[in-house]
Amino acid sequence: MTKTWYWRSLPLEKRTGSEIFAVLFRPTAAPGIAILLESPYPTPIDHPQLSRYSICAGVPRIVDGIPQMWTPEVGEVFPFLEKLLQQGIGEDDKDEVVFSPPAPPSLPPPHLPFTGGWLGWLGYDVAWEIEQLPHHKIDPLPFPVAFWYEPDSFAVLDHAQQILWLAASDASGLDELQQKLAKKDAGKEFSVSPSPLVPVSSSLPLFLTSQADYETAVNHAKKYIQAGDIFQANLSLRFQASTSASGWEIYQALQKINPSPFASYWQTPWGEVISCSPERLVLLQNQQAETRPIAGTRSRGVTLEQDMQLAQDLLSNTKERAEHIMLVDLERNDLGRVCEWGTVTVDELLTIERYSHVMHLVSNIKGTLKGEYTTIDLIRATFPGGTITGCPKVRCMEIIEELEPVRRSLFYGSCGYLDWRGNLDLNILIRTLLLAPMSGEAGEAGEAGEAGGVNFSSSSSSPHSKLIPQDSALNIVWGQVGAGIVADSDPEREWYESLHKAQAQLAALKMLNN
């Protein structure tokens, strides 16, 4: 069956991904499906190549009366994606691109990252499909481990050329999208969304692991390091809060505080995913693969001079550099399993990327995918990212399953797109919040405390219980943060580093509460 795409180009006029998404695709009522993969505009000067495009999409395509959306279980995810991709690039099922005026007489340029295909996520637990891992914990969250769908219409924003590319399953769909834009442009202001009609309130964030329990887990990880099992492990902890804000309101606040090149917002039947991720897991364009590991963090300085000093401290720190290089080597090996011999190179090493609350050490690794391997083989080779597991990856995942109180769910998995041509771009789901309508029994909250200028609660009760009172008017929001543990890690310092990584997410909730 031939899949036809009708295309139209319009001036972007400096509008952001959030603005276009809010007008064209965001449903006015839940549940619904709408996706935004957003890069910041204006694009950052330091790394403009990371922020050239944004992609947004609406409801699933309907084929023979069936919505084109899927939630394969662990064990079926990669075979399913292979089948999708083979259908997309097969001779009998190749996408037909149709140009629909008004617009210049040309088809969408081949450099567009997404020209039709699928948007979706892979939860961290997809790792159980790749490796033989123990099953000690459960995932209490309501999101499927994998979700992929083919949109009925979508938009690609080229921030560099200031062109808005619209695509739809039929010409009338293009007309409808353009009419929505024209109607909005006729108003006084092109705004993302109307102000909420009721005040937003949020509860005190509650960590589901106590400081004592986290420090105990850190000491256990250090024993594995001392025994020679691993070199480094990432240990994370989950927090939750109740809020009357929607996920979209939280996303807008978070993007304002912490604009990031791999940000995304997902409205789905299970809840909302809000991510301001700075980290790419893997990119594939025209057989050229890239991964961009982040390892090494410092707080931002209050003054320019202090900020520069902190950056220099990060760059010159022997421990941070050694840990980063170890993870770069891990990612080089991951790419090397599926790339042509001699093509895997590190084209950026130990560069500084700055975000609202933290700065990171970042490197970039490239390679040419071997002809006998597919896009899905590349995902298998790199998933999950080594920066959020540790080194060596498989043994670290076994230890994470032992020491963390719950399965990671979507946290530290990936989301992004799979283009019908085989192109791919996936982030790592860090700096991420998951939101769903509140349900369940009320539980006991732990003692309140303060850390890093933000109020927290900490609990040693079961992480599977609902720890915030039920209220049908509220949503529950979860986040997850962690730190890389090495031989000389100080458990208390790792606890506070983890809390600091939650600052942007918690600041977004606090901003909505003001």
Question: Which features does this protein show?
Answer:
514 residues, alpha+beta, ten-stranded antiparallel beta sheet, 12 helices, single chain, 15-stranded mixed beta sheet
Verbal overview:
The chain is α+β, with helices and mostly antiparallel strands and 514 residues long. The chain is 27% helix and 30% strand. The strands form three sheets. The protein has a 15-stranded mixed β-sheet that branches. Strands 6, 8, 9, 16, 17, 18, 19, 20, 22 and 23 form a ten-stranded antiparallel β-sheet that branches. The chain has a two-stranded antiparallel ribbon with strand order 4-5.
Strand tally is: 27
Report the C-alpha radius of gyration, rounded: 22 Å
User: Judging from the principal axes of the Cα atoms, what is the shape?
Assistant: globular
Report the helical percentage: 25-40%
SSE class = alpha+beta
Overall mean pLDDT: 86
**How large is the count of helical segments?**
12
* Biggest beta-sheet profile: 15 strands, mixed
How much β-strand is present in the residues? 25-35%
Spans where pLDDT lies below 50 across 5 or more residues: 91-95, 194-198, 440-471
Beginning-to-end CA distance, first to last residue:
53 Å
